[in-house]
């Protein structure tokens, strides 16, 4: 730990980043407050505007034992990018690392500084008919997306960030300020251990991510959507397999929406209507999206028509109802679930995954568990059936009849995660990563050997444990 | 190093694997001879038939300081799976680790023992309409594919092995015989550092890979092929971009074949004919393959017709000739190039990659380099344009007018790799990995920090450097 006073740390770091690059007091508020949960207190917030400044900050912090928490757009949900309550951690915001965004259209790749956001990246790519198709309910930075290995709703087609990462640049704490370049703008490169994977999903631990080269994709020229009601749990996977067999080249989303989830959104999000009106929302529905890179010119393919024909054949086999088309409206319903759930009360979020072959069974068992053991809680589950991810969110409603209490929440978390991990071969953090909010479960479920390796890796690049808000050792 | 005699090592290991599991003398020949290059001498060859036996072997070797070289089907091209000439290395063949091949059709995944071959895996998957679509000119084991991170001709559509690896099991040398389970049968799982990536592309160093869970894919119901002649180098990338824009959902291969490469195959492979006959083979051609998971039922799509229409529109813009259809014949030409090249003389293989935007320029510059500095050598280049990989192979022809000499080959390798690495931002090993045959270039081009990390990683799981034939430290 640092033996310097707060004033000495501030003075030392201000010398590096200049007065514009250092925030104090009320200016730090947005950097101290987690996107949805958690609040900390920073010693100061740094906003370096060059790699050289980041290197100098890393060197200075390594020399003086000052802790750094890298932060992108601070949109994460596990507290990994916010400082703790000690007031001893320096937030290193990448928000001014935005100078480089070099698009290589022919290579379908982009070299981009860590502080550029997903939305801005896609705005830059659009004139070239390209996009970075990770679809999320937030606008993170590229660095944050790598640190969290974000997945999102279109993973089944495009993969997660790791699948699209060609190269990565990081600044290490050991050797202090050293720049490590990992990979090049190449799709095939097998020249020893691929070190960049050590920093994907790192939650900002051990190194400061400063630049990446990403593979980007052709922006679709056509899409098709439908919201369908399956005839049974078993029918859901039959439908998915049939869809992958017949139209798998185009499948970009296969999202499950529980009745509770749809109802929460419909009841509480003003401009949203029930797509099944005048009938009530069903117990479960699936949002299907297809995308095609090309127009009809050479294929003659009308994607929506193909989907409609397919769904007609599925009627009475796997589906009993369907709302066709109007992708914007259907996605608006899907993306409004979180807002609707929050309106009901205090969400207790479970971002879990299981093998998709067991997803419907898991959801049913987990709902039964909540009904039996926590009958005053309300399940609002939705998720990504095709990739096995589910946001099994539970709401402590305003009208639950008893006040929110942390011990009950803890007991619920322990029960659900145990079911996911022990009974369903799943993951307690599918796409939000690990941070202070769920590090307990990392410590519970990571094997001693895995932790020994993680500790060894950390000791190689950050032996004093100065970087990040989580310790995987 | 071991202080035991050869007989003591053999006796100790025979106690573990039994007489059927240990080979000596002439029975070792196939395990000592590299697939294309190199020959070593093993102390003995072990063929354990269970995880428990592998663990016991690892423990015994760790205790006695005996070196192990894991070997799959021994099809690699960089010498990573063959023993050195010392006679002190024990080959650990995974050929009897074949008991597990559990297909989860609904999860589109398979848990498979390391010793199962690609061909056998695909035979098991076929009845379910699935496949593991890494397309190679060999039949490696699953373990070997992971250790080499194989890519192949369809990478642009399906990715490499790393992209399809959900979980991995390895036996470590430290703690001796410890089984490390990394990941589960999940597509979304972000729970700390993803350690399995440390062992992908490891060339068998540091740990013995014993089992994996792979994502598998829907076997295509339709495919379409064409062999086209571009109007210019610039047209090649224009054609690729147009194809990705219009028919990118289906693009599975976009392979470049130089005139020399086609001619070598046509001249020397008996059952092969020139698809351009009666005209001679052109200076350069591109093998295009499209695949669709579905039939025409819902899309109305005839894939070959779509490709033909597309190519019609490209005439005089980017292409000047095309041979349509007959995929089997066109792929036979593509896959016969290596055989044809070997018939000409001694191949000097360059498995390199560059950003695909620079691939045509690189090939032209590299051909010019050979013509200027090594005019007695003959270039037979072909490759994977869409992923930037190229087999820039050079032949020391029987009629070169001077005998093959190692110093000249070394000079050529240094020159070509320097061009790839320094001038074109490329890789000196795109898909064959690193082994004794090219470790020199790892030592030349890996940064000191990257090597320090690799050394640190190795020390965590194999501190005595007992496992594998390469040392990345």
Descriptive key words:
homodimer, 473 residues, alpha+beta, Uridine Diphospho-n-acetylenolpyruvylglucosamine Reductase, domain 2, Uridine Diphospho-n-acetylenolpyruvylglucosamine Reductase, domain 3, Alpha-Beta Plaits, 4 domains, eight-stranded antiparallel sheet, five-stranded antiparallel sheet, 15 helices, 22% strand, globular
What does this 3D model show about the protein?
The structure is a homodimer of 473-residue chains. Chain A has 473 residues and is of the alpha+beta class. The first copy, chain A, folds into 4 domains: 6-93, Uridine Diphospho-n-acetylenolpyruvylglucosamine Reductase, domain 2, CATH 3.30.43.10; 101-218, Uridine Diphospho-n-acetylenolpyruvylglucosamine Reductase, domain 3 (2-Layer Sandwich), CATH 3.30.465.10; 222-335, 2-Layer Sandwich (Alpha-Beta Plaits), CATH 3.30.70; 342-423, 2-Layer Sandwich (Alpha-Beta Plaits). Chain A is 33% helix and 22% strand. Chain A has helices at residues 6-17, 29-32, 51-64, 118-125, 142-148, 155-158, 233-247, 259-268, 303-314, 327-335, 337-344, 359-373, 406-423, 439-445, 448-461, and strands at residues 22-23, 42-46, 67-71, 89-93, 101-104, 109-113, 130-131, 165-172, 179-182, 207-215, 217-218, 222-230, 251-258, 284-292, 319-324, 345-348, 351-353, 378-384, 389-397. In chain A, strands 12, 13, 14, 15, 16, 17, 18 and 19 form an 8-stranded antiparallel beta sheet that branches. In chain A, α1 (6-17) packs antiparallel against α3 (51-64) and α8 (259-268) crosses α11 (337-344). The first copy, chain A, is globular. The first copy, chain A, starts with 5 loop residues before the first helix and ends in a 12-residue tail after the last helix. In chain A, 57% of the residues are buried. The model of chain A has no long low-confidence stretch (mean pLDDT 96).
């Amino acid at each position: 730990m640092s033996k310097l006073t707060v004033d000495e740390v501030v003075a030392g770091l201000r010398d590096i980043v200049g007065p514009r690059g250092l925030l104090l007091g009320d200016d730090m508020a947005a950097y101290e407050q987690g996107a949805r949960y958690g609040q900390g207190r920073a010693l100061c917030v740094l906003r370096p505007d060059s790699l050289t400044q980041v290197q100098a900050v890393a060197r200075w912090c390594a020399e003086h034992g000052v802790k750094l928490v890298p932060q992108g757009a601070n949109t994460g949900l596990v507290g990994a990018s916010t400082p703790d309550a000690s007031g001893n951690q320096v937030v290193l915001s990448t928000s001014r690392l935005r100078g480089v965004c070099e698009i290589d259209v022919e290579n379908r790749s982009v070299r981009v500084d860590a502080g550029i956001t997903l939305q801005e990246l896609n705005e830059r790519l659009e004139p070239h008919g390209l996009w970075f198709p990770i679809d999320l309910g937030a606008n993170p930075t590229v660095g944050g997306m790598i640190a969290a290995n974000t997945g999102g709703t279109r993973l089944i087609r495009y993969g997660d960030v790791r699948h699209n990462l060609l190269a990565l640049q990081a600044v290490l704490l050991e050797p202090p300020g050293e720049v490590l370049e990992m990979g090049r703008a190449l799709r095939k490169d097998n020249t020893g251990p691929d070190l960049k994977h050590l920093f994907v999903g790192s939650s900002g631990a051990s190194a400061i991510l400063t630049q990446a080269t990403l593979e980007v994709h052709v922006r679709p020229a056509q899409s098709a959507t439908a919201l369908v009601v399956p005839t049974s749990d078993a029918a859901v996977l039959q439908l998915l397999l049939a869809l992958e067999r017949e139209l798998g080249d185009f499948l970009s989303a296969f999202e499950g929406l529980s009745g509770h989830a749809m109802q929460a959104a419909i009841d509480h999000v003003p401009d949203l209507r029930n797509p099944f009106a005048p009938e009530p929302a069903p117990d479960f529905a699936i949002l299907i999206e297809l995308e095609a890179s090309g127009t009809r010119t050479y294929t003659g393919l009308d994607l929506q028509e193909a989907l409609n024909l397919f769904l007609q054949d599925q009627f009475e086999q796997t589906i009993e109802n369907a709302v066709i088309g109007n992708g914007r409206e259907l996605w608006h319903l899907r993306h409004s679930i979180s807002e609707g759930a929050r309106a009901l009360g205090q969400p207790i979020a479970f971002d879990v995954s299981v093998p998709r072959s067991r997803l419907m069974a898991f959801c049913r068992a987990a709902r039964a568990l909540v009904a039996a053991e926590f009958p005053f809680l309300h399940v609002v589950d939705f998720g990504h059936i095709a990739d096995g991810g589910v946001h099994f969110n539970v709401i402590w409603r305003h009208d639950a009849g008893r006040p929110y209490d942390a011990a009950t929440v803890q007991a619920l978390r322990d029960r659900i995660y145990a079911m996911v991990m022990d009974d369903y071969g799943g993951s307690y953090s599918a796409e939000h990563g690990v941070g202070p909010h769920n590090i307990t479960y990392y410590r519970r479920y990571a094997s001693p050997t895995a932790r020994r390796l993680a500790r060894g890796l950390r000791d190689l690049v950050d032996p004093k444990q100065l970087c990040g808000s989580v310790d995987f050792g």
